């Protein structure tokens, strides 16, 4: 009798604990990518590419803090303002022409300049950014900004040409800055993702031109390098 009385209790205990059956599916455990696999560039369907700043901070924590050469420090200061220049020009051109591509890319460029700002803070370097739209510490960039705003404001065509030109310039300048980096993979991580974003944004501006029946001749990139970019699909970090 005692054995018969115990059997239901044991059965109920097994059921309550999820045991006693071989067909139960395991409960999935939520997973997050390892920190060193976190993508820091986020790309939407139109190729607009922003930097995920929180994920960038997580990735940077994995890198030892190295020493910087004068060229590396100067490169960070320059790219901080060049990325700001892109966003500031696009904001003006959106107000002039009302094209959504300018507004969307301007917003993403804000995350680009902030990503460089993260590196400046990480290396305790002075920040050249004034915090004022259209104002730059670097006099060459100030002249370039004024020139591009005047040129791009003339018409929608000129605005889109200026957009493509800025992205070309970013690609070329980032190539030069990456060549100066020695042993600081954290800087290369940011630069390479910014260059991916510039290639996507170049495609976006070029396609806006082509869809309106307009052509574009590159001013900074060799023609073959330009063609390879604009003929390709939008890139994502895993590509």
Describe the protein in words.
This protein has 239 residues and is an all-alpha fold. It has one domain: Up-down Bundle (Ferritin). It is 62% helix and 3% strand. Strands 1-2 form a two-stranded antiparallel ribbon. Strand 1 and strand 2 form a beta hairpin. Helix 3 runs antiparallel to helix 4, helix 3 runs parallel beside helix 5 and helix 4 packs antiparallel against helix 7. The longest helix has 28 residues.
In summary, what is this structure?
By secondary structure, the chain is mainly alpha-helical. The chain has helices at residues 2-16, 53-60, 70-97, 100-122, 139-152, 156-180, 185-211, 223-230; strands at 41-43, 49-51. Residues 1-23 and 27-33 have low confidence and may be disordered.
What descriptive keywords fit this protein?
two-stranded antiparallel sheet; mainly alpha; Ferritin; 239 residues; disordered N terminus; 2 strands; 62% helix; globular
Question: How large is the count of helical segments?
Answer: 8
Rg result: 25 Å
CATH fold naming: Ferritin
**Main beta-sheet strand count, sense and barrel state:** 2 strands, antiparallel
Low-confidence stretches: 1-23, 27-33
> What is the string of SSEs from the N terminus onward?
HEEHHHHHHH
Tell me the strand percentage band.
under 5%
| CATH architectural category | Up-down Bundle
State the fourth-level CATH superfamily.
Ferritin, core subunit, four-helix bundle
Shape call: globular
Distance between termini? Answer: 68 Å
